[in-house]
Amino acid sequence: MNTEPYLVSPGTPVSLDHWDPGDKGGWNKGEGSARLELLLNDLAGLQERLYAEGQQALLIVLQARDAGGKDGTVKKVIGAFNPSGVHIANFKAPTSEEQAHDFLWRVHARVPRLGMIGVFNRSHYEDVLVPRVLGGLDDAATARRLAHIRGFEALLTDARVRVVKFYLHVSAEEQRKRLQARLDDPTKHWKFDPADLQAREAWDDYTQAYQDVLSTSSPEAPWYVIPADHKWFRNLLIAELLVQTLRHMNPQYPAPTFDPAGLRVP
């Protein structure tokens, strides 16, 4: 599967108009579903090697607008991993304690240890996106925070934590359908937040904020724009990219410290 078209090229201006939220990559749902099952099996095996090796870590960053599919991605794709080797963090509005520190203070402690996979379901980028749109950050402050994020991700890379970032790109119409479905289904009311409607009104402002955020794509911590109107293709593409990433990391089972051939279990 060719994943190159979804990579945000480092050092170039970003326009989300470049990617179609309804793109299916030339696949149909039946083919994609069959391919996904193979990829999920691969992910399970690669994670076991990563955990056994204990010398590298993988940090997966998920960002999206409301109803973009972050939770669905965690359930369907991240669910392929053994839970004992995965840590999921969700960064909401900072607490008073967190506000009393630098904006990355609360994030660094949630980075996965070596051997583990970490998932940021929303991330350190929330501390740029939301205040940027709501007026808490001007252009200069935004640029400083993005520079700090680049440095932070470079530090993680030096510490053998591979960072891969996914922006789930959903259209305004598909978001409308998903939010309305939450209102129409009493069992989904808990997932609806009236503030989501305010965010829809600021659609263009969030588009610009996301384009600024995506400019942090680098060879060491790349951003990928994931077409997310079709949930099955979203899952397929993310699984494909995670398999590629883990294969490139190439974790290995450690050599035994004893001679297995010379032992027998009584």
From TrEMBL:
InterPro entries: P-loop_NTPase (IPR027417), Polyphosphate_phosphotransfera (IPR016898), PPK2-rel_1 (IPR022300), PPK2-related (IPR022488). One of its GO terms (biological process) is polyphosphate metabolic process. Keywords: Kinase, Transferase. Residues 1-26 are annotated as: Disordered. Residues 29-252 form the Polyphosphate kinase-2-related domain. Pfam families: PPK2. The keyword Kinase applies. GO terms for molecular function: polyphosphate kinase activity. SUPFAM superfamilies: P-loop containing nucleoside triphosphate hydrolases. NCBIfam families: PPK2_rel_1. PANTHER family: POLYPHOSPHATE:AMP PHOSPHOTRANSFERASE (PTHR34383:SF3), POLYPHOSPHATE:AMP PHOSPHOTRANSFERASE-RELATED (PTHR34383). This is Polyphosphate kinase 2 family protein.
